[in-house]
Write a structure and sequence with these properties.
- This protein is α/β, with parallel strands linked by helices.
- The protein has a single domain, classed as 3-Layer(aba) Sandwich (Rossmann fold), CATH 3.40.50.
- Helices cover 33% and strands 26% of the residues.
- The protein contains seven helices and ten strands.
- It has helices spanning 49-56, 98-108, 113-122, 138-150, 168-183, 218-225, 230-242; strands spanning 9-20, 23-34, 38-42, 64-69, 72-73, 83-86, 156-160, 187-192, 203-208, 211-216.
- α2 packs across α3 (113-122).
- The radius of gyration is 18 Å and the shape is globular.
- The chain starts with 8 loop residues before the first strand and ends with a helix.
Amino acid sequence: MRNSAPERAAISIRALHVIRGGNEVLPHIDLDVPYGQIVGLLGPSGGGKTTLMRAIVGAQIVAGGSVEVLGHPAGSPVLRSRIGYVTQAPSIYPDLTARENLAYFAKTMGVGADGVATTLHHIGLADVADRPVSTLSGGQESRVSLGAALVGDPELLVLDEPTVGLDPALRRDLWKLFHELRDSGKTVLVSSHVMDEATRCDRLVFVRDGGILADDTYENILADSGTDNADAAFLVLAERNAA
């Protein structure tokens, strides 16, 4: 189930084909991600979500197809300061403070101390900014990783399982921040294997075994599947796709 392409797409993917380790991970992906929305990439682990995100940020060798991001081919140098990417594994330095981590990433993008201070406030870590990351909680560490991606004020955020392993309160706080970023005009692509996060997204893309089962709003997906929650909808659509 896919709607026609939106008038403006932050990400436009056509016939994407990826092979890793001799295995076909993404056989043929077509996808458009609209500007200014939170788009949830949902599905079980091992379904191809991370590979798709790597292709979008230009970190994945592809066998065929095209990926255009913010009007440029994925991986183009011009995109480096326009995309913020948060990987599943923390990409920050535990022996440095939160402020030092953000200052390091800010320097690579020509952002000064004021930008670092603004980002620390935005992610709610101003009061622990000078503590080593190794002494912070898991939720605070996740915020530092997010801050490293945000400090350059990117237009597009690509977030790979940013809430995995966090307690419900921390997940709620991060999603509040994602909505604030969306409301400020940013596009947010966020992956998760937790289906109840579907209700927090403007649009959903269900992914299974390297294929797209659905690409629509939550309400439309429920109506199409005749279900009342994301878990049930995913199962119905998976069975329909296999038939």
